[in-house]
Amino acid sequence: MTAAPSVTVRPLSELAEFQQCVDIQGAVWGYEDNDIVPRRMFLLAQKIGGQVIGAFTGEGKARRMIGFAFALPAYRDQHVYLHSHMLAVLPEFRDLGIGQRLKLEQRDDALARGIARMEWTYDPLEIKNAYLNLAKLGAVSRRYQADFYGPSSSPLQGGLPTDRLYAEWLLRSPRVEAALRGDLVTSYADVAERISVPEAIGEWKRSTSMRGNAVQLQEVNRLAFQSAFRRGLTAIGYERDNSGNGSFLLGRLDEGSLTGTVDDKGCIG
Fold it and tell me: Is this model's pTM higher than 0.70 or not?
């Protein structure tokens, strides 16, 4: 087994580094130019209180950026928070915990600045992302947006509508702290419903002959999420079986699990 590389995670501030974020977008998502976030947006985020954080391997001339996280300052319902718009890791460096490292660096930076809430959107058909967000980071989801971004040029989307769940990450909440300790357990008594995603979804999205299966699954799951959220349920957990199939666990949210030492503006008290 190949040893995991030594990785450094740190904030970015140089134009050359922001350009590497642009290049990584192309390598990860295969976007056409009109979907690429340009270098100046990373610069702007860094200047106005957002986050641009990179993951690197190697030293000196051999140093290489292999991933990044990008967030913008946001405000809603009298709460200040950060919206994490992008997180990318080069394909050859996935499944090494680098995405989680980037999220934890975002959390540390946010808390150091008195920001106790982060949100982002994610594709409910991407099993590994959902598992990271809900099971490992302790986020919850209770909002669903059909075709959030409109048509995408990324082959990873498979031509499907860009449906997204919102992840809510209350950075100092008991739920998140338990997840980061590895102690977050979703009791079966708390689970009212499950919404499943088969491991084959990636193949379905890539294959023109099987894409109809992906479209049908997305439509069925969209209705299931929308119905569950209307009835007051929340995605409170995620499971993967030995075959790689995923399941969202939906139940009644214990609001106390999201309560941190936060004032009414979303800042740490």
Answer: yes
* Dist. CA 130–CA 49, nearest whole Å: 27
Phi (first) and psi of residue 247, to 5 degrees: -140, 125
- List domains and CATH numbers for the chain: 7-258 (3.40.630.30)
> Each residue of 36-75: b (16+ CB within 10 Å) or e?
bbebebbbebbeeebbbbbbbbeeeeeeebbbbbbbbebe
From first to last of its 269 residues, what are the pLDDT tens digits of the chain?
A: 345 679 999 999 999 999 999 999 999 999 988 899 999 999 999 999 999 999 999 887 778 999 999 999 999 888 899 999 999 999 999 999 999 999 999 999 999 999 999 999 999 999 999 999 999 999 999 999 999 999 999 888 989 999 999 999 999 999 999 999 999 887 777 899 999 999 999 999 999 999 999 999 999 999 999 999 999 999 999 999 999 999 999 999 888 788 754 443 444 33
DSSP 8-state secondary structure symbol assigned to residue 222: H
Residue with tokens 């290489």: 64
